Each structure stands twice: as C-alpha cells, then as structure tokens.
Amino acid sequence: MTKSLDFYFDFISPYSFIAHKKIEKIRKKKIININYKPILLGGLHNLGGITAPAFNERKMKNMKNDCVLISLKNDIDFIWNSKFPINSLYLMRGYLAIDEKVKKNFFNRCFDAYWKENIDISLEKNVINILNSCGLNKNVYFEDIKKQEIKDKLKNYTNNAFQKDIFGAPTFVVNNKIFWGQDRLEYALDEYNL
C-alpha cells in the first residue's frame, strides 16, 4: 500500500496557506504522496461548537502577528487579507467540481490571490479572473458548484473530518494519526517517513 499524507484545508485558513507553501518547498526536494481534502472550515467549527479565532478580537490580533512571524521565518510571501474572513463555500465546492488536470493550478491561484495578493476571492469578478487564469469556463464552473452531488461531496468531506476528530485547518493525517496546525507538518512528515 502506498503511503500518503492527507491534507485538510480551506482557502480562508492562513495557516493552511502557510502549510501549503511549506509543502511546496519540501516537494522540490522529495516526493510526497498528498491527498488534498477540502473542507468547509466554518461548517467544521459549527459541528464542533468552536468559535473561530476570526470572531475573537484578541485571538485575531495574535493570529495576524503569528502568521506574519511564521511567514517571515519560512521565507513565504504573505499578506494578511483585508477582507478576512470570507465565505469560501463556492471556492471549496469549485475545487471539488473542476477537472483533476487543473486542480493544482486552481488550488495555487486561490491561495495566492487571497493570502499573497490581498484579493477578495469572495467577489464573483475575482473568481472569474482565477477561472480565466486556469483556463476554466466560468459558466460551467458556476453551474457545477450548484449541483447537489458537489454540495454533498463538500458536506461529506467536512462531516468525515469531524468524525475523525479533526477540528481545524490545516490538519494532516498519516497512518490514522492526526497532526493539527502548520507547525505540526514536520511531525506528520516524520510519521510519513517511518
């Protein structure tokens, strides 16, 4: 059986962005089999009765400073998005709806637009720009994200994450062990390399 690392993410999570950038750097040096697991972070928090840091002034202030500090330490281009938080529902559904061949590009564009370029990716015009840069048809995209099967797929990913006791993003799962937070990526990789 091929080893894999499950990466649970949401585009609105700055720590997911940081983890993604760390993974990109590591993948330049070695092969890692990663399963990307999109979840709706707000939905996951609701299931767990968790108040997100975005809705707590003190936590939010610390989170902003923390993300800048971590990004500087890891040489990651990062800008705190002035429109944080947004509803990522349509983008997370979109990730599940698009063709496998463009997923990586879409994934990168969504993350970079929000956490590197300070773009409000909840606005349709900005989503269309991302779609155009990925060679995706906007009409097909906006129709596909309304399909019940796509809605159910995202809901199932989120519910499955909750059932595994995942409560935030990013979370990594290797050998059925949970590693929460971008700062636990190294521990997840240690487990992966056992």
Biggest sheet layout: 4 strands, mixed
Q: Can you count the beta strands?
A: 4
Within the largest sheet, what's the order of strands?
2-1-3-4
Mean pLDDT: 95
Strand content: 5-15%
Uncertain runs are: none
User: How would you sum up the global shape?
Assistant: globular
Separate helix tally: 9
What name does the CATH topology carry?
Glutaredoxin
In total, the number of domains comes to: 1
End-to-end distance: 14 Å
CATH structural architecture: 3-Layer(aba) Sandwich
The CATH top-level class label: Alpha Beta
Order of helices and strands: EHEHHHHHHHEEH
Alpha carbon gyration radius: 16 Å
**Helical proportion, percent range:** 40-55%
CATH homology superfamily name = Glutaredoxin
Helix/strand class: alpha+beta
